[in-house]
């Protein structure tokens, strides 16, 4: 039998094949090497965050917090060098001076020996034990200043301690004069929360939100959102003219307000129907002339949108809390 003749390529194809042969050989050598190369491993990267149980604390009270160390890199982070983390904490005092912690050895070290990629360890502490300076009122900043470990600073405000055995008074500065409100002792938890809000400036630049003669006027914070004052305390105080209550929130299925917003409602008429259904936090104790001028201001009326809103804005410039002697 005769074998079939080999195919004959045109001269142009032969020249092209000769030119591509070295390139094809190079690709053949490159592909296996690329397929078997191990991906590069990212080194470990330590980062830290200071987390506190809030940002406002009463003077002399514990300041619980936690320092969290993360590994944002790809390798394993050794933690033997993290045992003295407390020594890297710095507190900035109200005057701007920076101080080191006292008794940093009380902080302790993380139990973990290594932190894997994406992992973290946390150590709890009482910041007051590390920085006794926090027993005094003022604005502070705490930060971890350690090379190679970025950590954002945290602001702390220390306010006077609330004493349930004392009587407190709110002083509201309005364009029509000063209003004085003696706070009630029957609602200690709500009053304590209210005093804290005032001391942190929550009601500064507040507004008279609604002004309805013969009913009530409200004092609403200018801040867009604020914490609810909880728990809800039902008080037995008579709701008379001048009684100050926390503004009722949306009612539940039984018609009882389910919570209170941190807004004040000053009654301009008795409300016995609210008895036991709202929280009375005080009584107007001064400023009758200011109230008389206030209720003469024009409003949007009952059919306004929103109803009973002052036509011209009324701003409460400041609200202070003082001990009532």
Structural class: alpha+beta
Instruction: Write out the CATH superfamily name of the largest domain.
Output: Cyclophilin-like
Query: Which stretches of 5+ consecutive residues score pLDDT under 50?
Result: 30-34
Q: In the CATH classification, which architecture of the largest domain applies? A: Beta Barrel
Which H/E pattern describes the elements? HEEEEEEEEHEEEEHEEEEEHEE
The CATH class of the largest domain, by name, is Mainly Beta
Taking strands numbered 1, 2, ... along the chain, how are they ordered across the largest sheet? 18-13-14-16-15-17-12-11-19
Describe the structure.
The structure is a single chain. With 325 residues, the chain is an alpha+beta fold. The chain has two domains: 46-159, Immunoglobulin-like, CATH 2.60.40; 168-323, Cyclophilin-like (Cyclophilin, Beta Barrel), CATH 2.40.100. It contains four helices and 19 strands. It has helices at residues 11-36, 127-130, 188-199, 288-294; strands at residues 46-52, 56-58, 64-71, 77-78, 89-92, 98-99, 114-115, 120-126, 138-144, 154-159, 168-174, 177-183, 206-212, 216-220, 243-248, 260-267, 280-286, 315-316, 318-323. The strands form four sheets. A nine-stranded antiparallel beta sheet has the order 18-13-14-16-15-17-12-11-19. Strand 13 (206-212) and strand 14 form a beta hairpin. The longest helix has 26 residues, at 11-36. It is elongated and about 75 Å long. The termini are far apart. Mean pLDDT is 81; it is low at 30-34.
């Amino acid at each position: 039998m005769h074998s079939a003749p080999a195919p004959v390529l045109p001269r142009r194809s032969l020249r092209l094949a000769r030119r591509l042969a070295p390139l094809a050989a190079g690709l053949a050598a490159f592909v296996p090497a690329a397929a078997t190369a191990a991906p590069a491993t990212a080194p470990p990267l330590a980062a830290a965050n200071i987390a506190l149980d809030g940002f406002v604390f009463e003077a002399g009270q514990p300041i619980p917090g936690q320092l969290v160390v993360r590994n944002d890199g790809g390798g394993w982070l050794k933690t033997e060098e993290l045992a003295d983390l407390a020594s890297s904490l710095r507190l900035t005092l109200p005057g701007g001076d920076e101080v080191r912690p006292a008794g940093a050895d009380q902080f302790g070290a993380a139990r973990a020996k290594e932190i894997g990629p994406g992992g973290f360890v946390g150590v709890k502490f009482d910041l007051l034990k590390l920085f006794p300076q926090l027993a005094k009122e003022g604005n502070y900043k705490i930060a971890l200043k350690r090379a190679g470990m970025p950590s954002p600073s945290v602001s702390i405000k220390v306010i006077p301690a609330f004493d349930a055995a004392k009587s407190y008074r709110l002083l509201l500065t309005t364009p029509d004069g000063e209003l004085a409100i003696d706070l009630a002792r029957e609602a200690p938890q709500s009053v304590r929360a209210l005093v804290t809000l005032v001391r942190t400036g929550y009601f500064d630049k507040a507004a008279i939100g609604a002004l309805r003669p013969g009913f009530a006027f409200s004092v609403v914070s200018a801040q867009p959102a604020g914490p609810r004052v909880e728990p809800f305390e039902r008080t037995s105080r008579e709701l008379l003219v001048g009684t100050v209550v926390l503004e009722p929130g949306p009612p539940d299925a039984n018609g009882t307000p389910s919570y209170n917003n941190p807004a004040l409602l000053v009654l301009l008429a008795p409300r016995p129907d609210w008895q036991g259904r709202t929280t009375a936090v005080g009584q107007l104790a001064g400023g009758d002339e200011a109230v008389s001028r206030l209720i003469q201001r024009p409003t949007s009326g009952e059919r306004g949108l929103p109803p009973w809103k002052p036509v011209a804005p009324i701003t409460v410039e400041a609200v202070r809390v003082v001990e009532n002697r």
